[in-house]
Amino acid sequence: MEFITDPMLIETRSMEIIAPYIAHLNLPPQEAKVYSRIIHAAGDTDYANVIRIRPGAVEAGCKAIAAGRNIYCDVEMVRTGINKAKLAEFGGSVQCLIADNDIAAQAKAMGITRAMAAMRCFGKQLDGSIVAIGNAPTALFELIKMMEEEGIRPALIIGVPVGFVGAAESKEMLTQATDVPYITVLGNKGGSPIAAAAANAILYQLSR
Q1: What ranges make up the beta strands (E) of 36-185?
Q2: CATH homologous superfamily, domain 50-203
Q3: Is 40 labeled as catalytic in the residue annotation?
Q4: pLDDT at residue number 11
Q5: pTM for this model (two decimals)
């Protein structure tokens, strides 16, 4: 059996296969790249029907990265999947506190999830930065609460928590209750690879 072994050719061919599934959406080029990378990461063309991007969100993400802003994540899997070397070229880094012992202690004391405690700890650092949530709906709920009650305003929210408890609801709230640029997927789909893919899709549109 013959198969492609060149990584760049594999990626190019993958994008060629994905292209017809999003062609009917008439997406701006920047958004099409995000759709393509999410679908590629998921191996699921049905994502074309559930991805939602607020107009101007990709541009807002690019601007934040170019300005050296950080990406704040809910879990280590998201942090691991983001191209940290590429982000560092612009002066930014990827931050995650889910495994921090102090965060674990705070979460236990307050009776909340570690993801919620981490978002609270990030606090004002989230202003003007990118938040990538791929696993914990509670992190997205908490972030939205912080925006409503404390005026926190990230430059971009990549909100794609996965699962059957709170995931769909948190993402629906994101699309309805905020004026912050977002990238999300409706329903139960999502996950850390999807959040990382969306972040990388923005990163790869920048050059230095």
Answers
A1: 51-53, 71-73, 94-96, 130-133, 156-159, 182-185
A2: Cobalamin biosynthesis CobH/CbiC, precorrin-8X methylmutase (3.40.50.10230)
A3: yes
A4: 80
A5: 0.94
